[in-house]
Amino acid sequence: MVDKIRDLKTIKRIIVHCSDTDLDSMDNIDEIRRIHTQEKHWSDIGYHYFIDKRGKVFAGRDIKKVGAHCAGHNFDSIGICFSGKKEFTDKQFQAALALINELMQKFKLGRWDVYPHNFYNKDKSCPNFLITKIWKFENGTVT
Length: 143
Ligand SMILES: [Zn+2]
Prior knowledge:
By secondary structure, the chain is an alpha/beta fold. It has helices spanning about 30-40, 90-105, 115-120, 130-135; strands spanning about 15-20, 50, 55-60, 75-80, 115. The structure holds zinc ion. Zinc ion (ZN) binds near residues 17 and 117.
C-alpha cells in the first residue's frame, strides 16, 4: 500500500484519541503499531503520536503522511493517541499539552482546532475524557 503524502499546509486540526485499553502489555507504541500493520494490514500505525502512561511521547506515522484515525478527517489532521481506556495519568496530560502547544505553534493552530475523536464520530466515546482536561495542566498540575 502506498502512503498518501500531504502538503503540511493542509494540516488544520489535531484529533485526540485513546487506545481503548488499560492493559500494561498495550501501553506500548510497538504493540499498537503491530496491530495496525499486522492485524489491520495498514501501511503503518494509524496515529501520528502516541503518549504512554509514563507521559513519554512517541512518534507514530510521519506527519507528512495522512493518518488512519478518524474517518473523513484524516487528510487535514494530526492524530494523537493517549494510552489507556479509563486510567490516564497526569504525566500524559502534561506531555500532551507540551506536544499540542508545539504543534499549534508549528501549524498556526489554536485550541479550537483541537478536537476529541467523538466530536466527529458520535458513536464513539474516544478519547474517554474531556479535551478541556488537557488545558488544565497549563501550570504543571491540575487546577
Ligand atoms: Zn479515537
